Amino acid sequence: MIAKxxxxxxxxxxxxxxxxxxxxxxxxxxxxxxxxxxxxxxxVWVDLMGGRFVGIVSSKELSEAGIAIPDYxxxxxxxxxxxxxxxxxxxxxxxxxxxxxxxxxxxxxxKFTAEEIFPxxxxxxxxxxxxMEAEGIRGFLPVSQLTPAHYPRVGNDKDEILNKLSKFExxxxxxxxxxxxxxxxxxxxxxxxAKKEEFDEMTSKIQVGEILTGxxxxxxxxxxxxxFGALEGLVHISEIxxxxxxxxxxxxxxxxxxxxxxIGIENDKISLSMKRLQEDKWLDLVKGYKxxxxxxxxxxxxxxxxxxxxxxxxxxxxxxxxxxxxxxxxDPADIVKVGDELELRVIDIEPESxxxxxxxxxxxxxxxxxxxxxxxxxxxxxxxxxxxxxxxLVRKLKEVGIDSISALKIKSIDEIKAIKGIGDKSAAxxxxxLKQA
Length: 437
Known about the structure:
By secondary structure, this protein is of the alpha+beta class. The protein folds into 5 domains: 11-103, CATH 2.40.50.140; 115-194, CATH 2.40.50.140; 198-277, CATH 2.40.50.140; 282-364, CATH 2.40.50.140; 384-436, Orthogonal Bundle (DNA polymerase, domain 1). Helices cover 22% and strands 33% of the residues. It contains 11 helices and 20 strands. The protein has helices spanning 11-23, 59-64, 96-113, 158-165, 191-194, 196-203, 281-285, 391-399, 405-409, 413-417, 424-436; strands at 31-39, 43-48, 53-58, 77-84, 92-95, 118-126, 129-134, 137-142, 172-181, 186-190, 211-220, 223-228, 231-236, 257-266, 269-273, 294-303, 306-311, 315-320, 341-350, 355-359. The strands form 4 sheets. The chain has a 5-stranded mixed β-barrel. It has a 5-stranded antiparallel sheet with strand order 8-7-6-9-10, sandwiched between helices. A hairpin with a 3-residue loop joins strand 1 and strand 2.
């Protein structure tokens, strides 16, 4: 039951009350304080500003606010919000419920400004977080703002997340306001922010580079959570192994004790690594290679951004799309296909990221360092390669059975244009090249 006498709970409310009184006029949204003069069957009558105005609160409005009519009697003080400065009968229509709401926002604004930590009740859960109530106002606590102890370790399964979060309904959590805007009813809570000071104190005893033993508390698509008592950190999927990791679940399960290295402590996150405690075999594999060296490789996979190649049957390298040809390449599949054996130049070796960068176009350089068409320096007389065409054009011609200059010369310009992937500009290049042959 709400108390009979409602009084302002913040300086802001007091200022609004004083402002309304000093102006001698009332407008929608004003907070006013009055004295109950009478309670009739369906209304509470309120004296405002020493008799200058008469206000009324309906029984329906009171019941919606959780207040019964008998709770008020003559002489009681009441704080309300102006809904309508003057109705058809000349009275001021008041709302106790709106006043209580304003009181709640006022109190929360004070907590937000003071960065206060306080309890709030979980009213309901959804797939994105918890709806909570404080000072009679509802706000939202995103799942990302839960502490590690309460964060649901279920990956991206939204239904399972909801199932885990539903267990908090009816409970009280210590929270802090991290987002506040009364005008758009924005109220964002954070349990994690409320525990930050405690987190900072505990992590002050841990150093980056330190090796710890912890227990696996969760395994999800993006990594492995490891707890150390009240603290918890994450081994991101990229820090699990030096080898490519498709599923973290193949490396640990909940309850396992594992050793990890602390590689970062930032804000409320502890970043961990498993792979840095393992020997990096990749470094041994690349010992015999250096930038500028020519190597042989087999095309293993073609992606929109480039081509993965296996070098000497032991190292995975990448030819970025920009390193396939001096000509513009829209699709790497126009240049190479899976299974092709290529001569490539090593252009980048990065131990930290295990990057072994390769270039096909670097093999298309003349002895003077001038770029020429792929294969032109080694092309046999009469072959398509001797025309100076790009690899992509040569490949398109060969795909339709044109594998020599003589076979190309008997084709008309229209027949060349009709070949899939060759338009007017490419056809013009081919004809011009034939004239020079």
